[in-house]
Design brief:
332 residues, alpha/beta, 2 domains, three-stranded antiparallel sheet, 14 helices, 13 strands, DUF4917, DUF4917 domain-containing protein
């Protein structure tokens, strides 16, 4: 028997706790996010030479961020010890420049998506928590748009003066003329997050949203920071990367297990490489989940329904809703 696909309006009142966003949410904003991987994009565009490709093979990873961080650390050690090593320096510059080029090719500018940000901000406002598995700036730009509005609501990412405050639950408190807030987290990191030479983790900010993407890429280019995001790799590789970051590990261990009653999943394929996210959410004890569906995809509904049956308690209710419903994500 086919699963019923609801409109968002039919179920929205029952789902206000947490929104989890996958890559399909970004694709709904801009089709350029419909790519296999950053590394594959770089290879197909002839950006990666064979020598640097061998680094990915040696470390058994597809993760650009990890390879860049490894060679960046190696060059910094060599500089500190005054060891001349042109080959390592050249590898670092090549990986860095390939990542910058790949992000520039794939990621839209702010002005190209600005008209969709009001709808996204209005949708996110309906949740206490927003969890984005995407490295791109869509959610952050929507946050900034929402915080510029005079609607007595605020989005908070729990960073204070560019540093993450691990007492994150205190940010739920509202004050002054604010009536409600949504907390935003990135379990796989984000372009706005970075590491410095001694592994301090920071949020990169900008005077305006229009300059944010370019400001981030300029900081990478200068060698001031390396990015903090996990965009690719197997489940085990992603878990290892998460464990290496204080911010990512805190979100993974504390935030993902803190959801109260309901979860909305938008644009997430729930692939094998993201099973660790599902495992953590299952520990939160939520009792209902709603998944977005495109084009009445019953095969997806069947697979997801079985995953929930296998990972959550048997009382957990599973619903499906049309991803293109009015007032849902980018849909006005």
């Amino acid at each position: 028997m086919p699963f019923e696909i609801h409109s968002w309006a039919e179920i929205s009142d029952r789902f206000t706790d947490t929104l989890l966003l996958g890559n399909g949410a970004s694709i709904a904003v801009d089709e350029r996010f419909h790519y296999e991987s950053l590394k594959q994009h770089a290879i197909e565009d002839g950006l990666l030479n064979e020598e640097v490709q061998s680094l990915f093979d040696y470390f058994h990873t597809e993760d650009f961020e990890l390879v860049l961080r490894i060679v960046w650390q190696a060059t910094n050690v060599n500089k500190a010890l005054e060891i001349e090593d042109e080959k390592t320096e050249a590898a670092y510059r090549h990986v860095r420049d390939c990542l910058i080029a790949a992000v520039r090719d794939i990621h839209p500018e702010h002005n190209e998506v600005a008209e969709k940000l009001p709808s996204i901000a209005a949708y996110m406002k309906g949740f206490y928590n927003v969890i984005s598995l995407n490295y791109d700036l869509i959610v952050y730009w929507a946050m900034m748009h929402g915080n510029d509005l005079d609607n007595r609501h605020i989005f908070k990412d729990c960073f204070v003066r560019s540093e993450f405050d691990d007492d994150w639950s205190r940010f739920r408190e509202v004050y002054g003329d604010i009536d409600s807030c949504s907390l935003v987290f990135y379990p796989h990191g984000n372009l706005i997050l970075a590491r410095d030479k001694i592994e301090n983790e920071r949020k990169i900010s900008s005077q305006g949203s229009n300059r944010l993407l370019e400001n981030i890429l300029e900081k990478w280019q200068r060698g001031s920071y390396v990015p903090l995001f996990v965009s690719e790799g197997t489940e085990r590789q992603k878990q290892k990367s998460i464990q290496s970051s204080y911010y990512l590990n805190t979100v993974y261990r504390e935030v993902l297990t803190s959801f109260q009653d309901s979860l909305v999943v938008y644009g997430w394929g729930v692939g094998e490489h993201d099973q660790h996210i599902l495992d953590r959410v299952a520990k939160s004890g939520i009792d209902r989940i709603a998944f977005s569906v495109v084009d009445n995809d019953q095969a997806y509904c069947n697979r997801v329904n079985q995953l929930i049956r296998d990972n959550f308690n048997e009382q957990c209710e599973v619903l499906f809703f049309d991803a293109r419903s009015p007032n849902c994500w980018v849909n006005p």
